[in-house]
Amino acid sequence: MKKCILIINCYVDELRQIVRRRTKVPKPMAPAFLAGMFSTENCDIVLYDELYSGPLENKKLLSPDMLVLTGLNTAFDRMLHITAYAKTINPKVVVVAGGPAVRSLPFFSSKFFDYCLSGDVEDMEPVIEEVLGKKYVSETLSEFSKPIPRYDLVWWMEKMAYLESSRYCFHNCHFCSLTPENMKFQAYETEYIKRQFEVLGKRKYVIFLDNNFGCPNSKILDERFKLMQEMRAKGYYSLFAALVSNEFFNNSKNVENAAKSGAGVLFCGVESFNRDALSSLKKYQNMKIPQVETIKTCLEAGITFLYGLVLDVSERSVEDMEAELDFILNTPEITLPSYISVAIPMLKTPYFYECLSNNKILPNVKLRDLDSTTLTLRPMDPMEKVLEFIKNIQTLKHRKIKVLRHSKQFYQLYKNTLTWQHMAFALHNTPLLCAPKLVTGSGNPFKKKRTHLGPDEALDTFYKPAFPVDYNLRHYFKPTMLTDKTGNISENLAVDLLSN
Q: What is the SS3 string spanning the chain?
């Protein structure tokens, strides 16, 4: 008898609206790899992505035999909501949850979910075998000891297709959620990457969703580029994108091989152009070569360079951060950032515990508040001034003319270096910064007034159940509090976050 499996990527939007981010990049691929753990013969598998399609509230879908949930830290409460829905409709459903929040909060998570995955996607195998039986485990799992992703089920993968060439990272950045997991970087074997290409089929654009596409082993990296050039020659893709760290650009051979392999975009965690800020973030690998020089090296090789900006209002003044934004806008030799984020105390990171020990985390902060647009830390400057700054950077208010001028000058500088596709990737950041919802989302057309202050932010509308849930599950819709009214870690999370 076939078993019904529902795998969901849970998502809550930083706008705190019901917004479907259909063109937002990157898209989640964890559901595809999780689906690869199940037998194609004995399981009916359905995937759902709340990033692409909005909150799942369809009763017909929410009655599987097994429900598998994943998502970022901010989506933890959303995982609880869906669990309550599913258990109301089908009390016998088995709920399996994973992702960074579940790994950081194993004790608390165990109160809500039947199984909590603390490691890799392969942890699903013993769960499937125990709950459903061995015949429900994927028939292809033994081939690579890793699942072959079910790209055929990923209906939200349109213009951009995704695969992986490695797992984890070889850096230990102060604020990164990978750091406390202390997992060793794993470069995938060439044959496994090749199989992903073959299963994926021929696509125009592919994105490597690695934590770090680069590799400290130059031989492995050279073999990967050789494979990619082979697959590109066979028509499997035209251009690729990948995330790399700063030292990738220190070796001119890497940049040359990336260009030969059809690199459309290389994304790098620049985080800041301010050396003091980089030092505070412990992003030492970004301090060896000037950031501007690194970006120009990439662009002059004909590859679009994209990056994100992290602004720590607890360590920097508004004037200092304003000056950095002006520096970027007055430097047409570099691309604009793809996003601007306030610093986030990710659970269990060294940065999290540093903020905690210095009493920086505000009282009454919810787990849901740990997003890129919400203030959760005590700022250096007066609160009102900082909140106005955070509000303005959401659309670069008062800087739109400078943004347009930068884009025009950038185009003039690189019009003979970048192809039209590479230029389009680079200039896409102009509307993305000034009108992010218009560019990436669809849904609620009405603006929701925000405070951008975690303790004061109103809850998303989906914290109110879309339909009646079992009385014993109503508490699943209460927000998970990170801190209490005194600013200390909440009692519910103390065992997970304060125990050795």
A: CCEEEEEEEECCCCCCCCEECCCCCCCCCHHHHHHCCECCCCEEEEEEEHHHHCCCCCCCCCCCCEEEEEECHHHHHHHHHHHHHHHHHCCCCEEEECCHHHHHCHHHHCCCCCEECCCCHHHHHHHHHHHCCHHHECCCHHHHCCCCCCHHHCCCCCCEEEECCEECCCCCCCCCCCHHHCCCCEECCHHHHHHHHHHHCCCCEEEECCCCCCCCCHHHHHHHHHHHHHHHHCCCCCEEEEEECHHHHHCHHHHHHHHHCCEEEEEEEEECCCHHHHHHCCCHHHHCCCHHHHHHHHHHCCCEEEEEEEECCCCCCHHHHHHHHHHHHCCCCCCCCCEEEECCCCCCCHHHHHHHHCCCECCCCEHHHCCCCCECECCCCCHHHHHHHHHHHCCCCCCHHHHHHHHHHHHHHHCCCCCHHHHHHHHCHHHHHHCHHHHHCEECCCCCCCCCEHHHCCCCHHHCCCCCCCHHHHHHHCCCECECCCCCECHHHHHHHHCC
